[in-house]
Every structure is written in C-alpha cells, then in structure tokens.
Specification:
Length: about 350
Amino acid sequence: MRKFFSMFLISTMALSFVGCGGADDSAKDGSVAQEAVEVPTIGVCIYKYDDNFMSYTRQAIEKAAEGKAELIMNDSQNDQAKQNDQIDTMIAKGVDSLMVNLVDPGAAPAVVEKAKNAGIPIILFNKEYQDGTHNLDYDKVWYVGTTSEESGIIQGEVVLDAWNANPSWDKNGDGTMQYVMLMGEPGHPDAEARTEWVVKTIEEAGVPTEELGTQTAMWDAAQAKNMMETWLAANGDEIEIVFSNNDGMAMGAIEALKSEGYFEGDKYMPVIGIDALPEALVLIENGQLMGTVLNDPLGQGKASLELAINAALGIDVLTGTEWVLDETKAVRVPYVGITTENIAVAEEAYGL
C-alpha cells in the first residue's frame, strides 16, 4: 500500500558516490531521511458510527482527508473484538498509519502493541487510555482528545451561573440542588470525569447538592428517555435539574419531560448536556436545553487526521498544524461552555 517515488540513478559514478556515504545530507539538520509517500493510506476505526458525536468527528476526518490521504474506514459497532480484527486486517493491507477510536480504552496496550509489531504509527483519539499515552511502550503513538475533567468543570460553571440567576429553580427553597445524572458508558474516562467534576464544581462553589438518581444510559437518547420517565414517576417535581454526560442523553431526557408537559407555560426543568451538537443548539434556541459544553468534533477529527498524515510521512506530527503536544504526547482540544448568549461559537465550530 505504500507508494514511493522512484529514484533514478543517472550514472555508475553517482552510484559510487552514494556508496561512499555522501547522500545522507538530510540527517545533518536532525531530520529523518525517508522516501516520500505520494498519498498515505490511513486505517481508521470508529467505535460505533451511530454515536451522535462520533458521526460528526467521522465527517471531519473524511473532509480533512480530501486530496491528502486515502482512508480505510471501519465501524467497530461497539465491539472491541471486532475492532481488533479490523486493525489486524488494516495492518495486513499495509496502511501507512492508524487512527483508532477505541471501543474499550483499556484495550490500548494490546492495540498499540499490534501497531508497534508492524512498525506502523498510531493515533488514538477521543477515548483516552487512563494511564496516558506516554505510558504505552511505543515511540510512535499519540493521542488526540480533551482533558476529561474540564468538561465537567465547565458544565458545573454553566449550571452555577444559571442557578444563581434563577432562584425559582430551587423549587423547595432549601438552598440545595436536587439533581438526577445521566451517565455515559461505565468506565469511560469522560463519563467518570464528567459525573464527578460537575457536582464537585458546584459544591466547591458553596451550593450543596442532593442526588436523586444516577444511572448509565450508555450515551444513548432512547435509554435516557426511559430512565427519565422512571425518575419522573418516582420523584416528579422534586427533581430540580438534569445533568447529562452528553447531548444525546439530554435530548432523550427532554423528550420524556415534554411528554409530561414540561416546556409549556411555566412548567420547566433545566437540562444540561455536553457536546454542543447542532441538534442540541436548536433546543437551546427553543428554550428546552438550558446549556451544553462544546466538545469540538471537527477539531478532534482534523487534528487526528493531520497527525496521522504526518506520522505516515515520517515527519514531526505537528508539522504544518496549529496543534501542540503536552507532556503526555497528547493534543488537547479545549471545551467551551455554550448557552443562548454565545451559541454562535458552537455554530461556527460546526460551520453552521
């Protein structure tokens, strides 16, 4: 699969000169001498195509690759065994680099070992190995994503601003924020960090909280709708706010609330998500989603692809990009809190 430009030798004398070691000038400035790849072939695994956020990330990858790389795209269908087989197949096909959105972050060492044994650089993205990329035993592995706790902190700050501006949200007047929490996938670093840090941020600001329910809905709107219906039947108006680890689940909760007459007249319950999906931005404009946190899928997709191309070419992965690496060999794409006041920021990120 690797397509290299042919080098034509024009005389026996030139060949002799090369044999004497005079052709290694490229190494004098510290660069690695390597033949150029015409258009690198990059193998990409997405943990599952029908995830709201990853569908936009996938589109960003495909757009960034136009004219710059050939992609072999794979839907791992939320099955790590299937993803492992897909990686084996792409390695057998001779891809120039790999981009892997892990199904199970804990599988990172085994996946990276596959790439290492094949001598193929690999970019892990969106789901981070908990021990950090720098602890994986390979010099050609990098990570593109976010700082997980940042999203929970920013979500908490958005909630605090709105809570303080709307005293009526404290329905029983006890000064305590009664909440339910829709969690993403158990063990997922983002789900764990978002769940912890949104509550921690609120309590550290001096607002006590009371958990009325915390359950996983696996990032899924339909599961979140069912869970919200259960909570409403059990707790009704005792719930003062709904925290969601992502917009997909927040949208499911809103559907359940609408069925109970919320968002009509004065009947309201604040719901906040994370991702700032275009569909969620519409709900913010309609007054049904209180806020969200921009988790930039276009930035993550573009950064991952750019690093993968440079890695395939054998050059510094940051060459010609806007990104920086931290001490863990990771590109961190920042989060931004989104409400009606700055919704244009999220719209611009999606090119709306």
